[in-house]
Design a protein that fits this description.
single chain, about 100 residues, mainly alpha, two-stranded antiparallel ribbon, 7 helices, about 70% helix, globular
């Protein structure tokens, strides 16, 4: 799962360049209702602008900032698949997005 997150959410990889929407849809399908894959996705990082970024944050950025509605929808599918049936993952994801202090 780590390699899939790295390939699908890293804009410099050939797979992302040729078919980002399909790659994101596949990632979401692999994560749906699969606790080991949900955990792997939560733990995965990708490189964006030469910095390591949590894979779920990268997916959220695609949802929020992509100019392509299909790509944004596919990234939303990844997040929904991660959160579905995963209350611990939901809380962990929320805690990483909430500001400190």
């Amino acid at each position: 799962m780590r390699w899939l997150a790295a390939v699908t959410l890293n804009h410099s990889t050939p797979l992302f360049a040729c078919c980002p929407t399909q790659a994101l849809c596949c990632s979401g399908d692999l994560v749906a209702a699969c606790q080991p894959n949900q955990h792997a996705l939560f733990s995965a990082t990708v490189r964006q602008r030469s910095k390591p970024v949590p894979a779920l944050h990268a997916a959220l950025r695609v949802v929020l900032y992509s100019g392509d509605a299909m790509e944004s929808s596919a990234a939303a599918h990844v997040l929904a698949a991660f959160c579905g049936g995963n209350p611990e993952g939901q809380m962990a994801l929320l805690s990483t997005m909430a500001g400190e202090g």
